[in-house]
Amino acid sequence: MSSFFQPDQPPWSINHRLTSVAGAFVPLLSSHPKILRVVFWTIRENERPKYCVVASDSKQVRVIKNYSLPTSSSHRLATCAALVKAMNIIQSQSLCFNSFEIFLPGRCAPAFLFPNVRISSAESSVFHKILNLGMSCHLFLFADSLSPGFQLAKVWAALSDVITDSPLKARCLDRAPVASRISDLLYRIWNEEWVSSTKGAATRLFFPTVSSASVLLKLRPSMGVYQLISGHCALNGHQKRVVVITSA
Predict the structure, then answer these.
(1) Calpha distance 216→194 (Å, rounded)
(2) What pTM, to 2 d.p., does this model score?
(3) Strand, coil or helix: 172
(4) What is residue 136's three-state secondary structure?
């Protein structure tokens, strides 16, 4: 995804919530009463793509949703449809839980995680919803497909006879507007993290918001100036010696 952004716009927030579990076995139930665990599975049966989404807490399976797609739908479309349904479930359960886990098997990595792939309006929308959940939503990729949640979803997906329209019928979006939309959202999340951070107090005196630091891109100050405004210079060490500050 880094190709969407300039160096001064790092996608830190999504990276913090994206983890590869490298084939790890995933229990059906979550590890905490306030965590909702969501898994899904996509299959093609009788030339028709099908999917199922399973959501569970620490005690029980709370939701099972299974659907079929038109025969012309691809695996990518089924993956997006499953993610859309997963996000709908998470939003409907947001008052009961404060953290959400979405586990994906290796063959179901969503298209918006690949920088050179054009994404549809539906894929952009589901990515936007994930980002809006902030640090409460975590994506886990490449989980063991033999985990009980995936196997349960696989069984229910095969039983689906409810046909829904594909969420990807809309045309693919050009990269520029998608990049701009994601960049604006990440800038807002980045700014919220910066304003509420317990670190960087000295630097925040110069730049109370992320956008205010953009002046540095025009001025191109020296390394000494950067050290001064970030509190990493000889002056900082002197202030510690005379007990003006508590750390160097």
Answers:
(1) 17
(2) 0.60
(3) strand
(4) helix
What is the tens place of the pLDDT at every residue in 12-59? 344 556 777 777 888 999 989 999 999 999 988 888 888 999 999 999
Q: Rounded CA gap, 14 and 137, in Å?
A: 10
| Angle in degrees, 0-180, between the axes of helices 75-92 and 121-132, rounded to the nearest 10 | 30
- Measured CA to CA, the distance from residue 137 to residue 27 in angstroms comes to 18
Strands in 98-247 per DSSP E: 99-105, 137-143
Model confidence at 193: pLDDT above 60: yes
Reduce the DSSP state of residue 20 to 3 states and report it: strand
Query: What residue ranges define each of the domains in the chain, with the CATH number in brackets?
Result: 2-192 (3.30.420.10), 200-241 (no CATH)
Q: CB count, 10 Å around CB of 234?
A: 11
Query: Which two tokens mark 121?
Result: 């309006």
Q: Measured between alpha carbons, how far is 5 from 24 in angstroms, rounded to an integer?
A: 31
Q: Look up residue 80 and give its two tokens.
A: 């997006």
Triad 61, 65, 70: Cα angle to 5°: 160
In sign, the C-alpha dihedral spanning 25, 29, 30, 36 is positive
